[in-house]
Amino acid sequence: NLSWFHAALSNLPSALSMHLVFWQPIPSFHQEGFLNLLARADWVQSVTLKVEQDLPKDFQKSGWPAPRFEGVCCERIKPNEQPQDSAQHLHIFTGFKTHGTLWEVFGRFSRQRKSRVFAYAEAPPQYGYAGYLRWLKYRWNGYSLSAQLDGVLALGQRGVDFYSSILRRRVPVYRFAYYDQPLSEFPELMHLEQNSKVQFLYVGRLISLKGLDRMLRAFAALRDQEYDWHLTLLGEGPVRRKLQLLAERLGIAAKIEWHATVPAGEVGAYYAVADYLIQPSRADGWGMTIPESLRHGCQPIASTACGAADLALDSFKLPTEAERMWPTILSDALRLGPLTDLQRCENRKRAEAYTAEAGVERLKSILTGSMSDD
User: Fold this and answer.
1) Smallest Cα–Cα separation from 95: which of 163, 39, 30, 158?
2) E strands along the chain, which residues?
3) pLDDT in tens, 20-32
4) pTM
5) What distance in Å separates the CA atoms of residue 115 and residue 268, rounded to the nearest whole number?
6) How many CB atoms lie within 10 A of CB 45?
7) How far is it, in rounded angstroms, from Cα 117 to Cα 106?
């Protein structure tokens, strides 16, 4: 039995000295902390980010800054690019055969490849007729990829459940996340004067997929509550006017404030004064606003259709298949009232499980675990 030997070997930096190559559609500032820290890890020789295109202008207009990578080589995918192949290379492809240029590169590996290859994937939207067709597509992709992947880094428990169901143990599925800022960059918490009004916040695009219509209907059910509340929506999108008309029809327009999109660096000021972030998505592979809100001490209330719903307390998870429960959950938040400084500190502490440092350690543990099985 040589399992003890493999375990000891995997703990040595020299046994895990790798070139990491991430393949994805665009560069993202959400990844800079994680990738920069990976590049400094003692078990990593290099980190390369291969992208289909530079940051699109519509992302820039919506407040996305250009990422500031340090020690990370970021470059465009070349036509007919051949992936580097060695036992020291780990290739991580975004999606699940869903981004054409990336997965064309994946298809250029030889059958005798030496590299390890993982998919880094969110669970797709699964509601309605289109959701069923999407499930069939992913199930087919699962069959075609089963013999070619060493693992799937699935986003949240929702991702783990989805990919485990379609792969049926043919490929290891590991729970992963979008790991963002290092702990050193967490914001200082503000001391807020207590008041009787509970502050809710939504941050994101105003589109049907985000489920804002059902959120407004849930808030409308609170009109007779003795507790006071206010909702701020931060973002733009094609259904904004439709949502404003719905709020007026429901009689809650006076309690809602509409703000245009602001640069990413300014969103923290909104999290800092909100008691609850609400993320009511019909489908969301992750939901970056959820860990962002926790870093500022805000309490997330999230639809279970979000990959990052794992970060919300069980009492603040909105069951996507039982919208009748939503007013009760919002009512519980009202009853608890505005957050105290102590509650904000506890929320911030929960965000530490999703720091860049946590992501680096999580990836290392997955790789050493998979290596020790050889």
Assistant:
1) 163
2) 18-24, 44-51, 72-76, 89-94, 116-121, 151-155, 173-176, 197-203, 228-234, 256-259, 276-279, 299-303, 317-318
3) 999 999 999 999 9
4) 0.90
5) 40
6) 12
7) 9
Kindly state the tokens that stand for 328: 């009760």
Give the CA dihedral 274, 278, 284, 285, nearest 10 degrees.
Answer: 50
DSSP assigned state of 184: G
Strand partners, 318: 303
Task: Tell me the pLDDT tens digit for each residue of 162-181.
Answer: 999 999 989 999 999 999 99
- Kindly report each contact of residues 11-15 with a partner whose C-beta sits within 8 Å and lies 24 or more positions away, as own/partner: 11/368, 13/42, 13/43, 15/371
Distance of CA 59 to the CA centre of its chain: 17
**Cα–Cα distance, 154 to 162 (Å, whole number):** 9
Residues forming a β-bridge with 202: 233
Type of residue at 188:
E
Q: Length of the chain, please?
A: 374
